[in-house]
Write a structure and sequence with these properties.
By secondary structure, the protein is an all-alpha fold. Helix content is about 45%, strand content about 0%. The two termini are about 30 Å apart. Helix 3 packs antiparallel against helix 4. The chain has one domain.
């Protein structure tokens, strides 16, 4: 991993999806609850990089996992792109009730 890797290089290296297919409309209508995960956070990318460099379960990866700055990270620019890519689909649904997390990445 190059220190100056572009977002596009990170997307390819870590096999990150910008878009995912929306839920089937029939399934969506039957679903009592729909959970929507946040886009890639600063912590998510930092952890992916640590595991890539140091290995899963390594001291380097563990240092990232226990870093208190990872408690409420914002979205990484890739995560913002993921959210923007799904904006129209999410806003096209007539939600009955919406609950959101107070976390930055939500």
């Amino acid at each position: 991993l190059k220190m100056d890797a572009t977002d596009e290089e990170k997307i390819a290296l870590f096999n990150l999806n910008i878009t995912t297919p929306p839920m089937d409309e029939g399934e969506l209508e039957k679903a009592p609850v729909v959970l929507i995960r946040h886009g890639l956070s600063m912590f998510n990318l930092k952890h992916l990089e640590a595991v890539h460099i140091h290995g899963k379960g390594s001291e380097g990866a563990r240092a990232v996992e226990t870093d208190t700055e990872g408690i409420d990270p914002g979205l990484h620019p890739i995560g913002i792109r993921q959210c923007e890519a799904h904006h129209d689909v999410i806003n096209g649904i007539e939600w009955q009730v919406v609950f959101t997390s107070p976390m930055q990445r939500a």
